[in-house]
Design goal:
Layout: H1 3-18, E1 67-74, E2 84-85, E3 91-94, E4 99-103, E5 109-114, E6 123-125, E7 131-134, E8 139-144, E9 147-153, E10 165-166, E11 172-176, E12 179-183, E13 189-194, E14 204-206, E15 209-213, E16 218-222, E17 230-234, E18 244-247, E19 250-255, E20 260-265, E21 270-275, E22 281-289, E23 292-299, E24 302-309, E25 314-322, E26 344-345, E27 350-354, E28 360-364, E29 380-383, E30 401-407, E31 411-416, E32 420-426
Antiparallel strand pairs: 1-32, 2-3, 3-4, 4-5, 6-7, 7-8, 8-9, 10-11, 11-12, 12-13, 14-15, 15-16, 16-17, 18-19, 19-20, 20-21, 22-23, 23-24, 24-25, 26-27, 27-28, 28-29, 30-31, 31-32
């Protein structure tokens, strides 16, 4: 086969993998078998912001009311990234030292693996429940069944890592600085490209391409078989947290030093503002459910959770917590978002969120009434201090809760920066939502 034909074949393989990506590829080791896990990954929260579209949309019901702490486990680790959850309800946590801890559905520790991966980035769960993350040395590390399964050097040393993208064939897309690589289920490099600028924002799957938002806010699209990623548009500044897919061709993100929620039309290559400040600063990544954008906002009154439709109209808001000490709006610069991951929504209109002070809450029906009149705010239920605040009370630079994820049936799991993992569920005696899936 000609070199040109080989490159085209590699692009086809990558396209089958996800509508994912491709590029120049390294040769395969014919002595090493290639295992393909065909089909979309099973339910759970398998990537940062839950899924490949980074929308925060749960595949199981969230609790409705009567919240209580189901279990609490202390891992003895400092944690920077949110949790991942597999189809059986196991929670995966990666510590700052590269240690991977897996918790059973009841909160007991199932396994603890020392990977020796320094400065680990966010992780993803592949189709076979292999956890993969990139470390500061430019190496991808895979952990499964209580052991390190493989290591793959794919990029240069960097502390900038985008959250990996799990592919439908069991492979994964990983980054280290400007280097982006597709690895198969065994860790072999299948394709790669080098961006013009690095990224630390989660990769997004859209239009059969891998969408990358750089740390300068530029959006790049990498197509299967292409030698290079193409520039699409720019948010005009770095974004806060992750971009999410609003529809099949539109990205939405918090930009403008947390003052705007902006969109980029990937087809038209155009940028527009969905919402301005609305009296506060936007915190972290937006979530998306049924065409509605959900975002946390810091206002003079405290933290609010806000619903905005695709036309930019505010559909509703609810006060999530009072003003947090050290996080007041002033001239001291942007306030870091609560966990930098989006609120988590289910298909019934329930929304789970974390506050800067460490509480985890639930609100339902936020987008039901257009206009967002304060007198019509839906009730919010909180588990106060699900993650205990730091003794110094410092919340501006580092949120107390680093991430939340849906935990079936009808639960939420939160990871604290201090290494505490908390499962929050509905009191069974309340007679509310059961274990049904969406």
């Amino acid at each position: 086969m000609s070199r040109r034909g080989t490159r085209a074949a590699i692009g086809i393989i990558a396209l089958v993998a996800l509508g994912s990506a491709g590029a120049t590829a390294q040769p395969f080791d014919v002595e090493r078998p290639l295992v393909l896990w065909v089909g979309s990954p099973r339910s759970g929260a398998r990537m940062a912001c839950v899924n490949a579209h980074r929308t925060g949309l749960a595949t199981s019901l969230l609790p409705a009311s009567h919240l209580h702490t189901e279990w609490r486990t202390t891992l003895g680790l400092v944690v920077q990234q949110g949790p991942l959850v597999d189809a059986e309800g196991h929670t995966y946590v990666v510590g700052d030292s590269g240690e991977v801890v897996v918790l059973a559905r009841d909160g007991t520790v199932s396994s603890r693996v020392v990977t020796r991966g320094a400065q680990p980035g966010p992780a993803a769960l592949l189709s076979d429940d292999t956890l993969v993350f990139a470390d500061g040395a430019g190496e991808a590390i895979a952990v499964r069944d209580g052991a390190v399964r493989w290591r793959s050097r794919f990029g240069r040393a960097s502390t900038a890592h985008a959250a990996p993208l799990a592919l439908d064939d069991g492979g994964v897309v990983v980054t280290s600085g400007p280097d982006v690589a597709i690895l198969d289920a065994g860790g072999q490099e299948r394709a790669r490209t080098v961006l013009a600028e690095p990224t630390s924002h989660p990769l997004v799957s859209a239009l059969g391409k891998i969408i990358v938002v750089s740390d300068a806010g530029t959006v790049w699209a990498w197509a299967p078989g292409a030698l290079e990623a193409g520039r699409v548009a720019s948010f005009g500044s770095d974004i806060d947290g992750s971009a999410a897919l609003l529809d099949d061709h539109t990205l939405v993100a918090v930009a403008g030093a947390q003052t705007n929620i902006s969109t980029i039309d990937l087809s038209r290559r155009s940028t527009s503002k969905l919402s301005g400040p609305l009296g506060g600063l936007w915190l972290g990544s937006p979530g998306v459910a049924r065409g509605v954008v959900y975002a946390m906002q810091l206002t003079p009154s405290g933290e609010a959770v806000v619903a905005i439709d695709a036309s930019g109209r505010e559909r509703g808001r609810a006060l999530a917590s009072g003003l947090v000490r050290g996080a007041a709006l002033d001239a001291g610069g942007p306030v870091t978002g609560g966990g930098r991951l989006p609120p988590v929504a289910d298909g019934t209109g329930r929304l789970a969120f974390a506050t800067l002070s460490g509480s985890v809450g639930i609100v339902a029906g936020l987008a039901a009434s257009p206009g967002g009149s304060p007198g019509q705010e839906p009730p919010v239920e909180l588990v106060a201090d699900a993650c205990p605040p730091s003794p110094s009370g410092r919340t501006r630079a580092e949120p107390v809760v680093v991430g939340i994820a849906p935990l079936a049936p009808a639960g939420v799991v939160a990871v604290c920066r201090s290494g505490i993992v908390v499962a929050i569920a509905q009191d069974p005696a309340s007679g509310g939502a059961g274990p049904a899936r969406l």
